[in-house]
Amino acid sequence: MSLVVAAPMAIVELANAQLQQQAAAAAKKDGGGHELEDGAADADTSTTMGMSCKRSEQQQQLVESSSSYDYDYGALMKGVRHLSDSGITRLPDRYVLPVSDRPGVGLIAASSTAAAAGGVGRVKLPVVDLAGLRDPSQRAAVLATLDDACREYGFFQVVNHGVGSDVSGGMLDVARRFFELPLAERARHMSADVRAPVRYGTSFNQAKDAVLCWRDFLKLVCQPLREVVPRWPQQPADLRDVATGYAAASHALFMEVMEAALEALGIPAPAAGGGVLGELAALASHMMTVNCYPACPQPELTLGMPPHSDYGLLTFVLQDHVEGLQVLHAGRWLTVDPVPGSFVVNVGDHLEIYSNGRYKSVLHRVRVNSTRPRISVASFHSLPAERAIGPAPELVDDEAGNPRRYMDTDFATFLAYLASADGKNKTFLQSRKLPLHTSS
Asked: Which purpose does this protein serve, as stated in its record (predicted)?
């Protein structure tokens, strides 16, 4: 069975500058390619997510032409929120996956056990209780839960984390309102600069995706926070304040969980300001991706995000009550049952490398549905992009049967991988693995 596996979600994704510029221009043109007045451009989107609205003439033409299931590329680059608001009833061809890659086909590796289970299921991820982690009498037990989760699933959910509902709920609310802005306002943030502190776009990597994904996104670089915030969107009016508070809370939570993960790995705590934690405290990379997955007319034919792993140490995901995240476990795609008030956390490629393979960066994807939009905020945390990372010396011991399993890697190596033929045949982690030699 074939499967389209996307490259790891990078801290800064590659994009095609020309297509970004075309997409921004398309947002201000009508169906005939003519420039729209500001008011006409604003009419292209509804004012509230999930509510019906009076269609403009352009939208009505889009709906009436849906029988061909094909659309102008510029129209598609306006994003799926635009398509969903237009009232389409059939999925455009560019979003239709090959049969073998559709979400209902859940089996990756043939196995009688997984086949008997049907290939797709549900999972309640292990729960890491930070209140217990902060209690010396419970810390060892919580560390064991964390360690097992990172080895077995590569995913867990964090509860009792101390991030107030006003902070997390406020972030989801302002994210929802951002995607309710008129298309012309959102399109201001389309950028040809892949390192811009803010970028708005659609799909996974719209410049390269052979099949587009049912997702719009807003990427916000979060470090150094004081320098990048003035370049974030000014609308909604409270976005900067709300997102700044959430970014600070996410980083603090990451530092606490990362410290626990290192302890669970058996890596001794360094002197104050030393080791990986010291580096992260001094200068870390942090990016937020705000995702919008509108209701989809034919969700069985497409995905919100393709199978991918995350490039980094840990990713923290804040999501609303609508399910959609799936993780690959034992050859099956499992839908994550969200725990209210929790964060979903997953191991990234960097942490698998640093742990010398003890912790697993696993493939995950996002399904969409036909009735309810979904909002999520993914926070990617790691070391600076230029920093090379390899297995921790404490976890490499040839005599004890723990040889070095990965080559050092940095962001330049990742970009070279994307541009190489390897990117078509193996995951990034597979490209960094060292051959293991066994004695006869």
From this structure: Involved in the regulation of shoot development and salicylic acid (SA) homeostasis.
